[in-house]
Description:
Blueprint: H1 2-31, H2 37-61, H3 64-69, H4 74-106, H5 115-172, H6 177-185, H7 187-208
Amino acid sequence: MKGLLQKDFYLMRTLARSYAFILGVFFLLSLTGVYDGTFLCTFLVFMCVMIPANTFSYDEQAKWDKYAASLPAGRPGVVRAKYLFTLLVSLAALALAALLQALLFFLGRAGTATLLEAEFSAVAPAGFGILMTAILLPLLFRFGSQRGRLYLVLVVAVLTGGTVGGAMVLSEAGLDASILLTLLAAAPLVGLVALVPSYFLSLRIYREKDL
């Protein structure tokens, strides 16, 4: 499985420079006040969500699935490697989002938010991203990268609508701000928990899939 994981990281290296350049541009725009830190973190998380989808695309182009299934790790190893890779990328995105928000805060670009509030605005998108990948990965295993990306748009729309709607309901209910911050802080945990049933679903799908 180590080799499968290394393969995905090698593929990610081909995208790293372009992603880093785009992120750098958006960070500079945040420094100038064009975008706020929450938008920057959301954009970062969305890029990281697309990375696993891109590895699926490369695998399909190289006809990798049939070869990988014949390796000692087999189909379960392929699924485990994808989920471990996704988890590591998601945690890296969370750490980087928190770092960028801290930089914006200390540079005086966080508005009236405190450091804790700024960090929570980085944590929430990261948790949202982990939850998206938990839903997306079984779709990618089932339908492939092309159709899976179309379903990603639907997933984003549903989760965004549900999150915004839920926030509005909680706000109208007069929920205390400290409770809202606690809910935001719990977002990554919710995403990580969602990865567990997602993994077993993907494992079942890939075992039964005709390669």
